[in-house]
Amino acid sequence: MLIKRLELLTDDLLAQKEFYSNVLELPVHFEDDSLLVKAGKTDIIFTQSPVDWVGQYHFCFNIPENQFLQAKVWLSKRIPLLKDVQGVDEFKSESWNSTSLYFKDAAGNILEFIARHDQKNATEIRFNSEQILQVSEIGLPSKDVIAFAKELCKKLGVSVYRQEPNETFTPIGDENGLFILPVENRIWIPNTGVPARMLSVKVDVEVNGKEFKLSGVPYEVV
Question: SS3 for 167?
């Protein structure tokens, strides 16, 4: 599953432009009411939120599987990394065979770099913004995770990823693109204090050559 386009709200487009262009060094195009960020294979569009809107999203970028340490050095010189209660800032998953780090953008969204070690995308090029390959995860909270996961799997033709369906957290898709489905108000890791809220989002994905759009609150696929 490829996440081709991701549209999110933000209350400060200029601050987001500064972050994505200067901190992550990604190509951006700014207009009066929207910001386009080119993140490898994915276009991220931030649009101006309504007055008094509050919310933070979680999304994740794939990086080359052999460049986690280089990416950590590169990023930690630019912005603080998020840590858990033990002060750990590297997160390994045995079941996913991956290594992750977390950080926040200017809007407080919980971002992640993940090196998925089963992917054959190693490179000897020194890590830079061009090694930010694509958005590979977007968080989609719901009140009934298992029912939502079952609905999405049926409509998209994908499966739960490397675990059994769980009522508090279930990922669906594959290593190129995952919908991360937590129960509403579950705190995003690591120790962020940020609850998973059902926020307006639009996602364009491609699955086995077919294109789908997800949008709305609650989320629906067409």
Answer: coil
User: Edge-to-edge, what's the strand order for the sheet holding 134-139?
Assistant: 91-93, 98-104, 110-116, 58-63, 134-139, 177-182, 169-174
How confident is the model over 124-180, as pLDDT tens digits?
A: 999 999 999 999 999 999 999 999 999 999 999 999 999 999 999 999 999 999 999
- Cα–Cα distance list, 2 to 14, 17, 57, 106, 185 (Å): 28, 24, 19, 25, 26
**Residue count of the chain:** 222
- Distance CA(115)–CA(98), nearest Å, equals 5
C-alpha span between 123 and 177 (Å, rounded):
20
Give the DSSP letter of residue 18: H
Q: Which domains does the chain have, with CATH numbers?
A: 2-221 (3.10.180.10)
CA distance 37 to 24: 10
Residues ≥6 apart with Cβ < 8 Å to 117: 65, 97, 98, 99
Q: Left, alpha or beta for 18 (phi > 0: left; psi -120 to 50: alpha)? A: alpha
Contact (CB, 8 A) for 69 and 121: no
Q: With 0-12 CB in 10 A as exposed, 13-18 as middle and 19+ as buried, what is 144?
A: middle
pLDDT digits (tens, 9 = 90+) for 110-134: 999 999 999 999 999 999 999 999 9
Torsion, Cα of 98, 96, 92, 151 (10° steps):
110
